[in-house]
Amino acid sequence: MNLLMFNSIVIGAMVLMAICLSKLSPLSDRYLKVFYLFAAGNLLAIVALDIIPEAIKEIGILGMLAFMLIGGLIFELMHEFIHIVLPNKKHVSAISIGVALGAHGLPEGMALGIILSVTAMKGYWNIIIIFLLHIFPEMIMFQQALKENKSNKKVKIIILSIIIFIPAILGMLISVRFGEKVQPFVGIFSAVSSGFIYMLVVKELIFRNIKQLKIKDTLIIILGSVLAGVALM
Question: Of 73, 96, 118, 208, which sits 20 to 30 A from 197 (CA to CA)?
């Protein structure tokens, strides 16, 4: 399997996934909050067990903390800017989730690309399956955020759902093309994206939805999803 075939399969599967998930009905407000909190736990598990260790391995603990802080500040500035330009909270939530997932996808794609550059054909299929399983809940979360705004048409939801994962594809292509030369940048982008994800989890997935649920229920949901994320990894 060559790189062109690999990317064709991944993109085709992403398009099919986006179309199928777009047919899901919007969740009720209460269930949507439960889903967002569950997603928050999963993302926390990914950041703690995958992204941060990768960043520490490449740029050290201090480097990871510095670039994670930069990522968090960039996300906060972006979040406040969107609030000013688009006062509608439903727009802000969807855009924030999309930007954070897109930023997270670039270093993830670069890490996968490094593996792709040295793997055999059987390894390609394993990576495809892992990648699609990983983006499945993220795509559901993003589409549900888009569906909160009833003016968003199905075609728009499908297109945006594909666009936010393009950075992951680009990351793979960059790594395969330049090989070990991009290895240090994987750590930098991983740290920055962990700052994005952390701020997304805190501002959009936890604080925004915790008011509607009891603290005990919230903690149980987040803990359960963290354990589920650990099991999947």
Answer: 118
Kindly report, residue by residue over 51-89, the tens digit of the pLDDT: 788 788 888 999 999 999 998 898 888 878 877 777 666
Tally of domains in the chain: 1
Q: pLDDT averaged over the chain?
A: 78
**What pTM did the predictor assign?**
0.76
* Domain around 113: 3-7+29-232
DSSP string, 100-157: HHHHHHHHHHHHHHHHHTT--HHHHHHHHHHHHHHHHHHHHHHHHHHHTSTTS-HHHH
Neighbours of 140 (CB within 10 A): 17
Q: Does a structural domain hold residue 161?
A: yes
Evaluate whether residue 15 is within a structural domain: no
207 DSSP 8-state letter: T
Q: How far apart are CA 124 and CA 9, in angstroms?
A: 11
Please give the average per-residue pLDDT across 189-209, as a whole number.
79
Q: What is the CA radius of gyration of the chain?
A: 17
